[in-house]
Model the fold of this input.
Amino acid sequence: MASEIMIIFQPSGRRGPARAGQTVLEAARNLGVEIESACGGKGSCGKCRVRIESDGDSVSDPGELEVRALGREEVTAGTRLACQTRIIRDVRVFVPEESRRVAQVVRKEAGTGTVAIDPAVKLHRVKLTPPTLAEATADAERLLRALEREHGLRGLELDLQLVQRLPGLARAAGWELGVCIWRDRKIIDVRPVSEPRPLLGLALDVGTTTLAAYLTDLETGEVLVTESAMNPQVAFGDDVIARLHHVAHDPGGLAELQKTVISEVNNLGARAAERAGVRTTDILDVVMAGNTAMHHLFLGLDTRNLGIAPFAPAVHRALDVRASDLGLNFHPGCRLFALPIEAGFVGADNVAVIIAEEPYRQDEIQLIIDIGTNGELVLGNRQRMLSTSCATGPAFEGISPSHIEFGMRAATGAIERVRMDPETLEVRFKVIGADKWSIDRPPADIGARGICGSGIIEAAAEMLKAGIILPTGNMNPEMQHERVVLENGKPRKFVIAWPEETALNRSITVSLKDIRALQLAKAALRAGAEILLRAYGVEKPDRVILAGAFGTYIDKHAALAIGMLPDTDPERVESVGNAAGDGARFALLNLEKRREASWVADTVEYVELATDPDFQREYVEAMYFAPVQLG
Amino acid sequence: MASEIMIIFQPSGRRGPARAGQTVLEAARNLGVEIESACGGKGSCGKCRVRIESDGDSVSDPGELEVRALGREEVTAGTRLACQTRIIRDVRVFVPEESRRVAQVVRKEAGTGTVAIDPAVKLHRVKLTPPTLAEATADAERLLRALEREHGLRGLELDLQLVQRLPGLARAAGWELGVCIWRDRKIIDVRPVSEPRPLLGLALDVGTTTLAAYLTDLETGEVLVTESAMNPQVAFGDDVIARLHHVAHDPGGLAELQKTVISEVNNLGARAAERAGVRTTDILDVVMAGNTAMHHLFLGLDTRNLGIAPFAPAVHRALDVRASDLGLNFHPGCRLFALPIEAGFVGADNVAVIIAEEPYRQDEIQLIIDIGTNGELVLGNRQRMLSTSCATGPAFEGISPSHIEFGMRAATGAIERVRMDPETLEVRFKVIGADKWSIDRPPADIGARGICGSGIIEAAAEMLKAGIILPTGNMNPEMQHERVVLENGKPRKFVIAWPEETALNRSITVSLKDIRALQLAKAALRAGAEILLRAYGVEKPDRVILAGAFGTYIDKHAALAIGMLPDTDPERVESVGNAAGDGARFALLNLEKRREASWVADTVEYVELATDPDFQREYVEAMYFAPVQLG
Done:
């Protein structure tokens, strides 16, 4: 048996037992100490650096990976990667500011779109005659006959838990009952007419980074409360690939990842119910949207084949299950509808976006871009719809410091807006959590911690406009300025925030390497869009719709400036917010929308970029920053 | 908080903690010490007598109930009722031989009846083409398409657990799969063709006293193994009423009773699988029959209304649920079909008997008598079927010493056969567990412990034949014999076994009171049969069928002799064994039998004896022992 060891994390002072051989990151997870771990513990992102404050022999010796990631000097001084450092005996660990995970600013409010109210779960009232010695039919049959007589409902199924509760309930209610029936097919709840309860549903958007839950009244369609939280699976890796890797290499990994997200959805539901002044047992129906990997992890489906060619998912079609089978703690009869997924990496989230935006009811050809951790594109109208998925990587969300040196999620302290004087190269920026531009605040108050996705795009667009970077993406070798940092005599970085403006006490810069990462990401998106346009046979879309939280906060002029979007009149580019959440909510409120979702999943033509002969050329071409066209 | 107290049971020496205020019976249950408790702890059966070996102040003072049941003298000597005695501090308790519960001899072998093989779960083989980059359809859709293409199966539902396991399984199996489909509707298992497993089902007869399980091959119909066990709910009362009382008065009682029977069925399944050399996960379907109370307690349905007028059950119709929802540990996709129940106290066990015996396919009018702890009667043929239920009480099964002084279940040591010389009044008997008659064995080897139901009936028939009891049921005052025990100068008891022939060291007798109890029970049965005959409009049945284990062991001549059965040619009385188990097995093997069961439950006309104007007269008349007609 492994002996019990004590680990203490500073500056929080949180302490608890650890096992010998466990990594510092694992011990931190167990104790709820939040340490950044973008790569999921593979030692590649370098984000989980910590300082060992005890003697060196309390943990394993540094490996080659750590020396490479941190440098010999840092390692000698006691800095280590939490994911690589194994505990030997009692140890004290300091977690520096930059390695602490900060709660993301979640910006997924319910959209304003509406839909006809025709939910899966409906309430019917019945009045039963009590049994007598002469007519002692069973309670369940009594109920079924009344439902047929008064509402014409036949052939209904009974949930076991309903039959279990019916006798006590019917008598307590004096035989006047409100009956909740799912899809005119199954009785899932019975309640006294004298004690009415709201009929609620939860629309869930399970994003790689963010979970959003819309607590919705199934009778009025009103969204009572929107709750969101970080997807707690980020502890196992920021991106999909890291999580699939975890599942593939840890026998209990799938169960672990499923449990963690289900548990957080239970928290969201409980918080939403509390804020709305209702009970979690008022939730009778759930609709879930998510990309293919999040969908699989949520449902506990084997994801091992999602990460290897030919990338076949476990299932395409919509799944109808009991919410309790997944461990969701809502009404015992609560159902869960998982929206169907399309082909390849185009998941149920994209289906949700499509049924929210309904390009299939339009004449104009729409290009819908849903930028999450992956980029998903749909091009089409009532004639035809094409979709594809681009591995934009996490550059846009800025979450991977292995891609963007100062990249971070859209959390407090992230630089999200950047403006530059093209003549003087003076910079002003805004950080999340403050309204004012940096130049209007005392530097010590600013406390910038990094740059998020929209900040990177704006910085690039401004640097391009000012000539700091060239259309190739190289830095202009002629440019001399105190903000331009040279390496070996060549410009390599540009300072966005000075040390005194940050919480890190060093400059926050955009490097040539960051620009390359951005070029790769935007080129993947742009090339995907061009391939779809060509496949459809048009030059450009009639409208560009930016979906997703990131799409809401991106500056469309900057996005056009760096050539991320196909050439389009800025007037015809619009942001629609969390369309995936809207789609989930519409499917929650309207059965026809669920049928539309299945039709969409079957109808949208998936274009596989990897096998498209033109993709490589388009991709290389799109790497260049397009001729500047600013609004 | 209650302090922890130690209780020791002798002679077993079993010891463990108890709570202050707990009864000795509750503490015994917790420690697995088996003490008889026919009334379920209400203090009325007097069966749970124990001796307190510690000081008197280690337990509560004897109450009035105990003094009445045991007599002042016994109580003063330390004898107590375990169900009434509350623990105060550390205590040592002696459990005498007669209070120890002995495992019942279970005699429920599968019958020989056969049925066409058309089970709910069938196996289909398919060969899938593996996914490629060009055709990366999801695994589930790949499977569904193959099933439609190769077997014409459309619109199939998927179990969540199946979708979860499919990806790994399909690849491990090289895409050659055996697919188990329930009712041509739902895929519940997928297995590699290269590793075939048997397709098994379990037919369950959940009796008040006995559980019987038939592990059956769904492809051949063969019964691989029959396993049986006592229904562990007897710890909460021997009869239905005691258990309903427990549920009605203990908030956790229903869950407790359900858990205990489910857990024993899991044991039965595991034992059966082990004996057959298969796995419990080979069990894919279960059919359950039981009387209304056992059915409800098995499914966790509210039984509070079964015990009070108008006795409406929670549900009549057949229920189809996932076995795992009930806590059954078979295949994760295993289904459970609970046969439908009829009206009143005529339960799913009677439906099972009817579909096994099929009176509705006969011209001759059959009277089917299923004697368990209740008596259930069916009379009819293809024209019409009538049913009723008689509160025979537990006299026939002999299990209630509050009815029959030396009554006991059909367990080792029970007197089951009695013969008497009508001249000398010499008695010979057989006990369960021995082949020889008592007169052919050394008295010290016999070890009789009591009399079971068939023994009581034979004793009564023989005593009637010998003139010891008169047609009124009174004991013949003229009779003088060493076996005739007088009280106040009047004959009150007849000795069946002398002290040296018993394990109790006192005589086992049949008393006038016992004869009265038997009269009440047989009169209830007989009156019920007469009412049914009258309702049908015939004088007597063409055939009498005795179903149930008790029906198998009863001597039909003795039963006719005491007037328990309507006047019938003994040649036309037959025993069919556990017909309820047969019916469950037929429903397991044949879907049409399930439809027949629903039709039967709807079709059989229930005759309520309590409200029948003739019942009282018939009942009183049937109390008399009919003119002797011996075979």
